[in-house]
């Protein structure tokens, strides 16, 4: 059996990542994947980046998310294409603040992150093993998510661009495990900025063996008020809503 822990959408929430990191270590996975959106919106991008890099040195896969693109490159149209009139000032200011905090070395790190990673599991990693794809939103895209409210035809179109049996993603901030034909979608939700009404950090554990794929969403408690208060104290446009989102586990805007 191969066990994979999947984390996504930390958004600079270091207390949440620290709690998840401890829980992941206790689960003793064979592989760890961090599926993007590492730093923007939260109060501690520097500390978050340091822990992500520590996890990477220990073997974790780390990939780019759309807000990481905003932080690293300032390409707000590419990062947030759903805004027809351009990204709001609150988004731009949050990205610029995170960019200033992490400095040139941090920006360089984000720029070199891959959009996707793949892993063969079973049969000693041979081409006959099951293929697992780690992405941010969906195969081939940082921004086209696999939300539960998506038209089923669109979902099928978005997952058809890969041979992967397991698609591990985030982006929507709503965790779920779903079967689409012969594929399993595992959305880890958000380790720092969840939207499903449960103000804990979400992540996923995936077991793959000869009997198939079993995946479960995990919930880890952390000091929500400390994180929310740190966002409020920062004072950027939109921080009152970001803090309320962290406190409630629901998107507030």
Q: What's the tally of helices?
A: 8
Low-pLDDT regions = none
Q: Just give the CATH class of the domain at 2-115 and 188-248.
A: Alpha Beta
- Beta fraction of the residues? 15-25%
Commentary on this structure:
The strands form 2 sheets. Strands 3-2-1-9-10 form a 5-stranded mixed sheet. Strands 4-5-6-8-7 form a 5-stranded mixed sheet, with helices on one face. The mean pLDDT is 95. The chain has 8 helices and 10 strands. Helix content is 36%, strand content 21%. The chain has a domain at 2-115 and 188-248: 4-Layer Sandwich (Purple Acid Phosphatase, chain A, domain 2). Helix 3 (66-73) packs across helix 5 and helix 7 packs antiparallel against helix 8 (239-248). The longest helix is centred in the middle third of the chain and has 23 residues, at 89-111.
List key phrases describing it:
253 residues, alpha/beta, Purple Acid Phosphatase, chain A, domain 2, five-stranded mixed sheet, 8 helices, 10 strands, 36% helix, 21% strand, globular
List the helices and strands and how they pair.
Elements: E1 2-7, H1 14-27, E2 31-34, H2 45-57, E3 61-62, H3 66-73, H4 76-79, H5 89-111, E4 117-121, E5 130-134, H6 152-159, E6 166-169, E7 176-180, E8 183-187, E9 201-209, E10 212-220, H7 224-234, H8 239-248
In short:
The chain is α/β, with parallel strands linked by helices. It is built from eight helices and ten strands. It has a domain at 2-115 and 188-248: Purple Acid Phosphatase, chain A, domain 2 (4-Layer Sandwich).
């Amino acid at each position: 059996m191969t066990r994979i822990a999947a984390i996504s959408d930390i958004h600079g929430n270091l207390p949440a990542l620290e709690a998840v990191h401890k829980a992941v270590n206790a689960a003793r996975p064979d592989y760890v994947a961090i599926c993007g959106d590492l730093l923007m919106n939260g109060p501690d991008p520097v500390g978050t980046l340091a822990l992500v890099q520590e996890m990477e040195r220990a073997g974790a896969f780390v990939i780019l998310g759309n807000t990481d693109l905003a932080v690293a490159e300032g390409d707000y149209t590419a990062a947030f294409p759903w805004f027809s009139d351009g990204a709001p000032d609150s988004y731009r200011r949050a990205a610029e603040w995170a960019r200033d905090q992490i400095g040139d070395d941090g920006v360089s790190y984000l720029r070199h992150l891959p959009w996707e990673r793949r892993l063969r599991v079973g049969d000693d990693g041979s081409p006959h093993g099951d293929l697992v794809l780690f992405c941010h939103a969906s195969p081939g895209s940082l921004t086209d998510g696999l939300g539960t409210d998506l038209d089923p035809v669109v979902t099928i179109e978005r997952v058809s661009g890969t041979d992967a049996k397991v698609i591990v993603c985030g982006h929507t901030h709503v965790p779920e495990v779903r079967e689409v034909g012969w594929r399993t979608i595992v959305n880890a939700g958000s380790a720092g900025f969840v939207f499903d009404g449960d103000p804990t950090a979400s992540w996923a554990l995936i077991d793959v063996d000869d009997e198939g794929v079993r995946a479960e969403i995990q919930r880890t408690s952390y000091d929500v008020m400390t994180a929310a208060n740190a966002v409020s104290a920062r004072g950027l446009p939109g921080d009152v809503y970001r803090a309320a989102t962290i406190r409630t586990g629901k998107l507030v805007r």
